[in-house]
User: Fold these one by one.
Assistant:
Number 1:
Amino acid sequence: MTHRILVKGATIITMNANRDVFETGDVLIEENLIKSIGPEIENPQEATKVISGKGKVALPGLINLHNHAAMTLFRSYADDLPLMEWLEKRILPAEAKLTGHDVYWGTSLALLEMLKGGTTTFVDMYYHMDDVAQACVDSGIRAVLSHGIVGINSILGNKTLKGAKEFAQKWHNTGNGRITTMLGPHAPYTCPPDFLRKVLKETEHMDTPFHIHLAETRNEMNDSLKNYQKTPVALMEEVGLFERQVLAAHCVHVTEEDMDILSKRKIGIAHNPGSNLKLGSGIAPIVKLLEKEALVGLGTDGAASNNNLDMFEEIRLSSLMQKGYHGDPTLLSVEDALSLATRRGSGALQVGDIGVLREGAKADLILMDFEKPHLQPSDNPLANIVYSASSNDVDTVIVDGNLLVEHGRCLTLDEEKIYFEVSKSAKRLRV
């Protein structure tokens, strides 16, 4: 029997090219695709499940472009510190103790938080990635995964590059196509130019995108200018990284010339406003990047530097930060802010079948419960989502045509087991 889900009578925010919003409409899902969508679907074919949209708003599942999911294990462990002190004195020593078991359960906790909060696709870079991928398969989420590569010495560089290549080839297009892979050189300051050239040469036969941290802090910019007489972005252009498809996390400290390079090369940019604020990294020039038609989306970063994975918080912050920084309340409108987590996020990944509700797109959608005091009156649902909503307002989540969250309860993950295992791991890792 064909698997069909009918969402009936919801307010629908499509995020399509026409910015269509249906005050009351239906969405018919067949297998893993949206079969039809509109004000009312007449005589729908027999649905295996009908979901009432009364009092709810349907929108595309949110896309989290940058995460280190298993770092939920270090939530609230290393707060109020500069980035390099946070990394070198707290996080790296704790990460040295990680096992695959820890990473599986830390990732599962992140997946539980993301799914219940309306995130249907996320991008991850970490270690013990086989365990990350398995957790993603088990949960039903859509994920783009990369094994971290660090080239500060030849032994570590060779080991992590080998692991990254093997992981990318093993897991690409698994989980019914929900799991895809990237290569993950950590950053220019952990992957020097000669090593990056080696990575590019050894992977030239692979049609695999790259995921890298880039131009996150002022110190990174200053060190790059001192050591190479180039900005981090210009250095990556010279090395040849931008000949490949790249997703660059942060891009906070960039020059006008850097932004032109990022736009011209169609580099995906993962803007992480919450993490950038908390670590004191600065405010990325998102308005200018968008004016230059750069490919910008949103991410949370890991829970050790955020400290939550609430994409609605990132949507709101992205808009408010630009308005406040530039002193202009008209910047980054509600539609533009929401698009960073949906349609534009899809564009930054350079995939066209998620981040939008339209016929033929992947059936990744969420329903938000608008029968809440902070979401009333509900005559402007876009503004309510951007300025008033939180992850706690998500009622229903469908990924790849499968119902994963119903009435706020995750159907694929055992919450009690996850909390138990994470508690055990966290206690050992934090000693």
Note: The mean pLDDT is 96.
Number 2:
Amino acid sequence: MMDRHGTDGVRKPRSMRPVDPHESLHVQGDAFRQLKYIANQAEAFLHGIDDLIAATQRRAPIRIKEPYKLLRDAPGKPEDEEARWERSIWSEWHERRGEDFIPGVCTSIVSYQVMLRDSNDDKKWGEVDLLGRSPESAPVVIELKGPSSKESPLRGIAEGIAYAIAVRQAWSPCFAKQWCDRLQIDQGSDCICRTVFAAPADYWERVTGQQGAAWRVPKAAWESILRLMRALSERQLPLSLVRLDAEDPQLPKGIRGSLLDPASFV
């Protein structure tokens, strides 16, 4: 007797979700959720990288109707763990200090939950979790995951890169003027928008196998991710992986970022 799982009640194995090189990265998040296939998916991303970037550029929204939210007054009191980390980071780092939030990558945090959509037609384009300032005063798109997140690093990378492409596309039409007015700096002609995929220590210890085999990203996948990062950098889309440590992880409070080298995970 057959059931919804297939012949004789045996559950059919899931196959890898395809990565469509002709579709924008921002709508393919689910394709990068399968930890089992992360090495294959990273290779598919790398193989189709130029088509994927071009497709994302074509779909990138430019926010004309309303300005980008680059000024925040208060963080509020969110209950979701990811949002609590996000708002705490902004609270502690939105003013420039004598040190960098992420050394050499991000000096301070300008805003959080920066909406990219211009209209309801911009489907699946959401908000940049955190928008930072680089040492060169360029935007830094930070895609953040909470300590208990079960999402793969590749999904965070794809989401962050999609949003960085959107910021880059909007730079000349409107984003540059708003950004430079907010930072009170002279406007440059080019925009090298950095991407950061950041998560607390618990997340990185889980995906690197320090907490056991469950949710561990295989070494072969880290090799593919490293190659992907190099290819993105060659295309003016530099990407950093960042570990977040806090003096008090429960609040959280006293948060600092440090760069991770995926080569050390191999």
Note: Residues 191 and 255 are 28 Å apart (CA to CA).
